[in-house]
Design goal:
alpha/beta, TIM Barrel, Rossmann fold, Immunoglobulin-like, 3 domains, seven-stranded mixed sheet, six-stranded mixed sheet, 28% helix, 19% strand
Length: 752
């Protein structure tokens, strides 16, 4: 069944852009109970209706108790069902609410797999049902515009086609498990700096083609029942009251029939939000409470607007079975099946960036003494930062994974090498000698000496570099992408005593790896890879599984090369001392800081247009360290014999491109084949090339398979701002197929 779904999504990627609202679509299915719902609304008082439009608790909104309609219960995602919390998002310390910690969003994106995204969503949705939750606040699916973005680890990729496949798979899987998905953060939530006030100024074409595409597909094909407007403004209007986004596009063009819920603290007005498409205010009732009742009674707002909002909420309530409190949390939430999903995703997410002289995989019969160097080998990654965390039943760290897999075959010695840095939490641990006081603090002499001693006599050094969830965090963007606490200096010193170094990067987003590249024989991007991440990493390092992850975003040579920095259009000036979320809910982080809802809105001009990520680097000819889609294996794959089913295609055709893929190695392995297109004689402005489809292919040793990739011609259209609609430009199209955005051995030309 999943194979059918995966093939269908190949067609969906494109046709979502065009499609009319046909009957029996995923959204139309939400309306099947409208007759019953209308009867319920007719029995409700105005007060009962409005009571449904704001929070009841910090993680619920009201039902209709008098009529037997249950509350709606929310839970944070997007990579774990969050533990039970009370005021201030503080844990209630239950013993029954541990949940599987799945690899975070950028790790899932590195799998380039619809099937794994589906499994991930279904597993998460299954656990939510056991907890009695109706809505998971996820997937988080915004485009990675900034290498320093604080929520890069939660989001997916820099490319809309990749984001689309993952978002649809995740949404379908979650809702097939009976839990409603809440797409977030709609839309253009691409920075944490001033996230509560920044005004994104963007043209309609790049907004449609780049930033909205995955949301559109998750609504129209994924059938998402809930959408969360973002904190930020878009072209002058907050997400919670953006008529163009919420009413014209989401409900009008895409046919969305479900409900919207504001981000926590993201509602700014009564009339603006009421008319701008918001259903539920989280949290409080200062806008969607007594003021809303007053607006109706004074004739400022027609009660039919309230009825529409209640109808959309009840559609979700009828579609998601309410679980009584006495039946929730009665079984173990995280079970073996879900933990296996986390492991499977983790193994497919790991990216082999470099492997000089095939130093990997590790051969235990030849490598008898391994030095494991670096705090990230032992530091857990489930918790940290401001918002997204996981109370997990266990977490296998990299060191534990290696020890569990190797046993007594190999001697492993560990040295910490560098201190921890707590980012926004650092102020609460002043002058703690065990912690780094600054992001770029010099190496600790004692820790460095110990690391050099351990490394000096080892057969192999595994250096664990990267960041943590206090450095990459909701509420704050990184200062830069430099490895923190002088890790570059440490690896340089290690290389002086033992040049046989494999660096494992544990991070959510890209880091500046120029020094690491110079000093390492091999480099592995390991991500924040869930509760089984240590076992997955060990299995890849030891060659039990061939690495097959591909980068979901470009690793630039330096931060200043990336488009928002090169064009100086990242609005990085902090105009407030308070974060919109932290100031209201996380006083344990920011103390008594208050957030001014009327604060000046700095503008972020998206003047790079559609040239995001690899589109920028390719079009401008800017060299990179590792390109989008890059990832090596322990085997070589040969691409040959590209052909298409036709040479000329009409507007309603599907381009079918076939080629032969051969595993030339001695072990089974996966390859993610990628198809890009380049316009050869275009009059409309385009990037140098764009990803259009891809597929993860598993081949046995020596096996050859014919792979066919499909691209509906409708996917090749652009948003014409003069006609306010999608248009197709005819002409010659170069089709490129290969291993990454920079390595495409096959190409051919077709006509449109």
């Amino acid at each position: 069944m999943k194979r059918i779904l995966k093939n269908a999504v190949r067609l969906m990627i494109i046709t979502t852009i065009a499609g009319a609202n046909a009957q029996n679509t995923p959204q139309e299915k939400l309306t099947v109970n409208d007759q019953k719902i209308n009867a319920i609304i007719a029995q409700m008082t105005l007060e009962e209706k409005v009571e449904m439009l704001h929070s009841k608790t910090i993680m619920s909104s009201e039902g209709v108790p008098r009529l037997g309609i249950q509350d709606i219960k929310y839970a944070d995602g997007p990579f774990a069902v969050r533990e039970e919390i009370g005021d201030g998002f503080q844990p209630l310390n239950w013993t029954t609410d541990s949940a599987t910690y799945y690899p975070t969003g950028s790790a899932l994106a590195a799998t380039w797999s619809y099937d794994l995204a589906y499994d991930y969503g279904k597993a998460l949705g299954t656990e939510a049902r056991r907890r009695g939750k109706d809505i998971i606040l996820g997937p988080a699916m915004n485009i990675q515009r900034l290498p320093v973005g604080g929520r890069t680890y939660e989001y997916f990729s820099e490319d809309p086609a990749l984001n689309t496949v993952l978002a649809v798979g995740y949404t379908k899987g979650m809702q097939d498990a009976g839990t409603a998905a809440c797409l977030k953060h709609y839309a253009l939530n691409n920075q944490e700096t001033n996230r509560g006030s920044v005004d994104v100024i963007i043209a309609e074409r790049p907004m449609r083609e780049i930033y909205l595409k995955a949301f559109e597909a998750a609504v129209k094909e994924g059938g998402a029942m809930c959408v969360m407007p973002a904190y930020n403004k878009v072209n002058g209007y907050y997400g919670s009251e953006n008529n163009h986004l919420n009413n014209v596009i989401l409900r009008g063009e895409w046919g969305f029939k479900g409900m919207t819920v504001s981000d926590w603290g993201g509602t700014h007005s009564t009339m603006g939000a009421a008319l701008g498409g918001l259903n539920v205010q989280m949290t409080g009732d200062n806008f969607f409470g007594p003021p809303l009742i007053e607006a109706v009674r004074e004739g400022k707002l027609n009660e039919s607007v309230i009825d529409d909002k209640v109808r959309e909420i009840l559609r979700l309530r009828f579609a998601v079975e309410a679980i009584p409190n006495e039946k929730a949390n009665t079984v173990k939430i995280s079970q073996k099946e879900q933990q296996e999903v986390a492991y499977n995703v983790a193994t497919k997410a790991i990216v082999l960036l470099k492997n000089e002289k095939t130093v990997l995989p590790i051969n235990p019969s030849k490598t008898k003494k391994i030095a494991v160097i670096g705090l990230n080998a032992t530091a857990p990654t489930a918790w940290g930062g401001m918002g997204a965390g996981a109370k997990t039943p266990y977490e296998i760290t990299p060191l534990q994974g290696l020890q569990n897999r190797l046993g007594d075959q190999v001697e492993i010695q560990y040295a910490q090498a560098y201190k921890n840095f707590l980012g926004m939490f650092a102020a609460y641990r002043p002058n703690d000698p065990t912690l780094a006081q600054t992001l770029d603090e010099a190496p600790d002499a004692t820790l460095l000496a110990e690391a050099l001693s351990v490394a000096r006599n080892a057969d192999l050094v595994l250096f664990f570099a990267g960041t943590n969830k206090f450095i990459e965090s909701e509420g704050v963007d990184r200062e830069n992408i430099t490895l923190p606490v002088s890790q570059d200096l440490i690896i340089a010193k290690l290389a002086e005593v033992n040049p046989n170094i494999v660096t494992v990067v544990v991070s959510g987003g890209p880091c500046d790896l120029r020094v690491v590249e110079e000093k390492s024989k091999a480099i592995v991007q390991a991500w924040w890879n869930g509760l089984e991440g240590g076992h997955a990493l060990a299995d890849v390092l030891l060659g039990t599984i061939a690495p097959s992850g591909k980068l979901p975003f470009t690793f630039p040579l330096k931060l200043e090369d990336s488009p928002a920095y090169a064009l100086n259009n990242f609005s990085s000036e902090v105009v407030s001392d308070g974060d919109v979320f932290a100031a209201q809910f996380r006083h344990d982080i920011v103390g008594d800081a208050e957030y001014d809802p009327n604060i000046h809105s700095p503008k972020a001009y998206y003047s790079e247009g559609s040239l995001v990520g690899y589109r920028w680097f390719d079009t401008k000819g800017v060299p990179v360290l590792y390109p989008f889609g890059h990832g090596l294996s322990y085997v070589d794959f040969n691409y040959a014999n590209i052909r298409s089913d036709k040479k000329q295609y009409a507007a309603d055709d599907i381009i079918k491109v076939s080629f032969d893929l051969t595993n030339q190695g001695t072990m089974a392995a996966d390859e993610v084949v990628q198809l890009y297109v380049r316009r050869l004689d275009a009059q409309v402005e385009w990037p140098n090339k764009e990803l259009k489809t891809f597929e993860r292919v598993t081949l046995a040793a020596g096996q050859t398979r014919t792979v066919t990739l499909e691209v509906p011609v409708a996917e090749l259209r652009y948003w014409d701002e003069s006609t306010n609609g999608w248009q197709l430009e005819n002409g010659q199209l170069e089709v490129l197929v290969g291993r990454s955005s920079a390595d495409m051995p096959l190409k051919m030309t077709v006509g449109i």
